[in-house]
């Protein structure tokens, strides 16, 4: 509220009502002015915000990431051979994970029932994309009236994002489309965004590794980035000053309800100012990796994906963020794989109708995706954290899809791998079989470990996933 303005119960209720949309608008403003929410953990900020959440039992930061691949998985090559427990063998698709087998859990029996057709008919890829991290049934529309739900990564970011320079990081090695019909009447926004800060506000992922790197560490060569980051902050201040002046000019012509919304907005702008001030005070703490800034998007898809994986390793290693989503390929992706001598599109091949030649090509594509994931996990395992353990030990990394069998468009018994030790809170090296549990139950158990409090239900959850 404005200074000297009395606060009534009605005012407080209205503020609570607008709080979520305000955060969404604030995030949108941050994109418009190239303003990341920066607040480093250091002796200065630690006096204000205690490190009471998102840490491991050893005191090192705990990270959480989600990766989504396209079009489900061939069940005959995905699931391990042998019984659940530690005595299992990796099947064809997951053999690249052999080197980190004792660092993962292969989880079966998790469902996303809200991705099933129900009364909405066709559009399984659109529903699966929108449901993967939200657990809700998305509205079937190709217009502007999209509606999903807050994604689990953003639930965590809204509570613990202030502990790092960036509340969360969203990246992709795929196209970014926010409008139009991408699947049987479902907006492209559902398939091209994993993260949602509100039911109507997706958080678009960044596809350019150069932009990701410069957002994290500043532009230029090593040694130049801090000064360039400071210049960008000064430019952001100028933009904010303009916004504030413009807002005050039009405030006199507003209705009482609009004034309340404007007050909420101005409070948000002042919060941005506070974050800029905190960042300026701690610029000397901004990491400056001794590596060249990426030139842009590589033409080779493997080089592209591994470069984006490297950005995530750097973000976690420097504690720039503890929450990340990486859209490897949107559900329904029809990319060919010329490097594998596969000219047909991935989505086309997944509707194989038991054709052996098509199944073999799908198997090669799925193996390729798992090879890239294995490369990332090994990079995380090689990178030492501040407590002497590896980054992988101090992380919870989910890879999967809300489509199970791409040929039949099923959404039960999803292909899911949970990698990392959760700082010692997860039991790894296992094949775990649950009985028709909502995937959202696992999400709740994960954010509990991240230090998120007060979230009793999420999506279609029925409780916490026991036995992780």
Which SSEs are present, and which pair or pack?
Layout: H1 9-32, H2 43-46, E1 63-68, H3 75-78, E2 104-111, H4 124-131, H5 152-160, E3 169-172, E4 181-183, E5 186-187, H6 188-192, E6 195-198, E7 201-203, H7 209-217, H8 225-251, H9 256-281, H10 301-317, E8 323-327, H11 346-350, H12 356-382, E9 395-400, E10 416-419, E11 430-438, H13 439-449
Parallel strand pairs: 1-8, 1-9, 2-11, 3-8
Antiparallel strand pairs: 2-10, 4-5, 6-7, 9-10
Helix pairs in contact: 1-9, 7-10, 8-9, 10-12
What's a quick, concise take on this entry?
With 468 residues, the protein is α/β, with parallel strands linked by helices.
Q: Tell me the span between the first and last alpha carbons.
A: 44 Å
Which value, in Å, is the CA radius of gyration? 22 Å
- Briefly, what CATH class of the largest domain? Alpha Beta
Number of domain units: 2
Strand order of the largest sheet: 3-8-1-9-10-2-11
What is the CATH-assigned architecture of the largest domain? 3-Layer(aba) Sandwich
Helix amount, in percent? 25-40%
Tally of extended strands? Answer: 11
Derived structural class: alpha/beta
Order of helices and strands: HHEHEHHEEEHEEHHHHEHHEEEH
Strand content: 5-15%
């Amino acid at each position: 509220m404005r200074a000297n303005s009395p606060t009534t119960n009605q005012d407080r209720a209205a503020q609570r009502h607008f709080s979520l949309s305000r955060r969404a608008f604030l995030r949108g403003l941050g994109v418009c002015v190239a303003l990341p929410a920066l607040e480093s953990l250091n002796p200065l900020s630690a006096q204000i915000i205690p490190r009471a959440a998102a840490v491991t039992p050893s005191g090192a930061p705990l990270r959480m990431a989600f990766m989504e691949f396209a079009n489900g998985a061939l069940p005959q090559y995905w699931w391990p051979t042998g019984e659940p427990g530690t005595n299992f063998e990796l099947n064809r698709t997951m053999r690249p994970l052999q080197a980190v087998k004792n660092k993962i859990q292969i989880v079966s029996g998790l469902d996303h029932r809200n991705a099933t057709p129900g009364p909405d008919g066709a559009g399984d890829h659109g529903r699966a994309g929108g449901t993967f991290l939200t657990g809700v049934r998305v509205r079937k529309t190709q217009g502007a009236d999209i509606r999903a739900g807050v994604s689990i990564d953003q639930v965590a970011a809204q509570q613990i994002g202030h502990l790092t320079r960036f509340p969360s990081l969203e990246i992709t090695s795929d196209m970014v489309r926010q409008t139009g019909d991408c699947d049987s009447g479902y907006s492209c926004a559902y398939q091209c965004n994993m993260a949602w800060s509100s039911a109507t506000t997706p958080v678009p992922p960044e596809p350019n590794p150069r932009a990701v790197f410069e957002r994290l560490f500043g532009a230029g060569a090593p040694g130049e980035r801090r000064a360039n980051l400071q210049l960008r902050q000064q430019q952001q201040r100028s933009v904010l000053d303009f916004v504030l002046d413009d807002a005050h000019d039009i405030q006199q012509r507003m209705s009482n309800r609009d004034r309340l919304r404007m007050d909420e907005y101005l409070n948000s702008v002042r919060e941005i100012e506070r974050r800029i001030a905190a960042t300026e005070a701690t610029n000397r703490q901004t990491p400056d990796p001794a590596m060249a800034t990426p030139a842009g998007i590589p033409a080779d898809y493997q080089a592209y994906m591994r470069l984006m994986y490297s950005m995530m390793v750097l973000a976690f290693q420097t504690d720039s963020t503890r929450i990340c989503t990486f859209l490897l390929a949107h559900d329904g992706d029809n990319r060919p794989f010329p490097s594998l001598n596969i000219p047909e599109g991935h989505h086309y091949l997944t509707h194989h109708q038991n054709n052996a030649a098509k199944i073999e090509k799908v198997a090669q594509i799925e193996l390729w995706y798992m090879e890239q994931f294995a490369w990332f996990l090994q990079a995380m395992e090689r990178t030492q954290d501040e407590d002497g353990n590896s980054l992988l030990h101090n992380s919870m990394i989910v890879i999967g899809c809300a489509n199970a069998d791409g040929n039949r468009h099923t959404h039960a018994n999803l292909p899911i791998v949970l990698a990392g030790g959760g700082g010692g809170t997860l039991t790894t090296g296992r094949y775990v079989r649950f009985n028709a549990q909502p995937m959202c139950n696992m999400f709740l158990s994960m954010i509990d470990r991240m230090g998120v409090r007060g979230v009793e239900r999420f999506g279609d959850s029925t409780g916490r996933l026991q036995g992780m």
